[in-house]
Write a structure and sequence with these properties.
2 helices, 23% helix, two-stranded antiparallel sheet, single chain, 73 residues, alpha+beta
Length: 73
């Protein structure tokens, strides 16, 4: 994907800067699936605090999430 600096992601009051160093454009493939309830995927994620979890996924976590999406559609 291409690396972007998107002004739409600006979070500062002057709306010219963003707290995110880089944005990456992604292209969806296949049909869009409905969201999974958290109780369905909770066991796959690594939680850091409360309902917050690590955003970086291992290949095993990705495989598990794909299986959960396919099972619940």
């Amino acid at each position: 994907g291409a690396w972007l600096r998107s002004p739409r992601c600006a979070a500062s009051s002057d709306e010219k800067t963003t707290p995110f160093v880089a944005q990456m454009r992604v292209k969806g493939v296949g049909e869009e699936l409905p969201p999974l309830p958290e109780n369905v995927f909770k066991h796959v994620m690594r939680y850091t605090a409360g309902h917050k979890f690590e955003l970086q996924l291992s290949s095993r976590q990705v495989s598990q999430l794909i299986l959960l999406f396919l099972k619940h559609t």
